[in-house]
Design brief:
Largest sheet: 5 strands, antiparallel
Order of helices and strands: HHEEEEEEEHEE
Radius of gyration: 20 Å
Number of strands: 9
Distance between the termini: 44 Å
Strand content: 25-35%
Helix content: 10-25%
Low-confidence stretches: 144-150
Oligomer: single chain
Strand order of the largest sheet: 3-2-1-9-8
Length: 156
């Protein structure tokens, strides 16, 4: 009798725990099975606005899509930087670069600097997200077909 009352009392907690466990398990399996590399494009967003389309195969075909993005000289950022862009984030400016190894946030005014610490990547299992500036980078194979499943990797 006491067991049934205890189960009824904590049923919501048990259901919540199971839901979180299944979501974590699904995310882990999705990350393991997610494609790596072979992307043609990286799309840079601030909130839901497309700011920049980076062509990973032919950097000269990259397109600035917003007045809040300016192409800058990549030479101060090392030999690997083929293109560099200054982006106005939600809070502070950022500098992104494109290289043969992928995309990197080279400078950001965010306090954590997590986005900068990622270095160059084109792996959907290591999404580039600057929560402070509301900026994210999504990778696409062709014609805007995102490398991740449907939608962004992280919603902030």
């Amino acid at each position: 009798m006491a067991l049934k009352e205890g189960l009824r009392k904590h049923l919501g907690d048990i259901v919540l725990f199971l839901a979180l466990f299944l979501a974590l398990l699904g995310g882990t399996i999705g990350a393991i099975l997610a494609p790596e590399g072979d992307f043609e494009e990286a799309i840079v967003y601030r909130d839901e606005e497309r700011l920049l389309s980076l062509n990973l195969e032919e950097p000269s075909l990259s397109k600035v899509l917003s007045k809040d993005v300016q192409e800058v000289d990549p030479s101060p950022y090392g030999e690997e930087a083929l293109k560099a862009y200054r982006i106005q984030g939600a809070m502070t400016p950022m500098t992104l670069a494109l290289s043969a190894e992928g995309v990197a946030v080279l400078e950001s005014g965010c306090p954590s600097q997590y986005c900068v610490g990622l270095g160059y990547t084109m792996d959907v299992r290591r999404p580039i997200v600057c929560a402070y500036n509301h900026v994210r980078v999504e990778f696409a194979k062709e014609d805007g077909a995102l490398g991740s499943q449907s939608g962004p990797d992280i919603i902030i």
